[in-house]
Please model this.
Amino acid sequence: MAEIFAEREREARELRRREADWRYIDSLPPRLRAALIFYIETGDLYVAAKIAGLKADEFNELRIKARIPHVN
Amino acid sequence: MMAVADTSFLIDWARFSLRDLLFRVFDTVWIPEDVLNEVQSERTLTWIADRLASGHMSLFPLLPEYRDRALRLVELSRRGPARGLDFPEAYCIAVAEDRGYVALSENGAAYSAQFLYTTARVWRAYEVLWELRRRGLVPDDVIHVHQEETRHKFPQRDVERWRSYGSSQSASKRQGS
Model:
């Protein structure tokens, strides 16, 4: 079971990394950039929004602008 | 059937043009009070406010017994092989496991929790779409519409399962006709 979840997370992380618009992410202020990178690595919207200092759905809009897919 | 939804599910599902089909599956979708604080966009707020007004959604209070259980679930999740839960989705799971609701979440940790340490059922958009298709309320390609509109991607394994179910259903229909 542990392997299945590890594989799911690995697949999701790779997809987020691959599809992200890194030029856009790199152009953002440090706090937003850090939050998006955290999201790419973990897929955790709630904590990423807290890092960004945004509400969850504001962060979700930022995620979409950065072309990061939500994978689940 | 009743459900309790967390923020990750609501903000994702609110972008979907067929969002109101959710209420063909669930009689009531409970929204924990804290979840409302996490919602800011007009689109999501308007949808939630409309559905609260129509009675399809209802607010769920923050109760101490579920708060405690949610904290225990967060602790439990940190010991396991999957990613740890955050409090908001843990609260939904605590409510769902006690009251027999379905927890709606797009959080990967919440989804894996049902296979590891909770009796609660946790559905993502994928399971809701699956149920809608099973009832004949949406076409086979709805999964692509959903992915496009929400910029949400389902794992490859799930997409293949969706396809193979569609093929087997078509084959059964052909055999039946």
Remarks:
- Chain B touches chain A at residues 7-8, 11-12, 37-41, 44, 81-83, 86, 88-89, 106-109, 111-112, 115-116, 124, 126, 150-157 (CB under 8 Å).
- The longest helix of chain B spans residues 156-176.
- The CA atoms of residues 14 and 47 of chain B lie 7 Å apart.
- The longest strand of chain B covers residues 28-32.
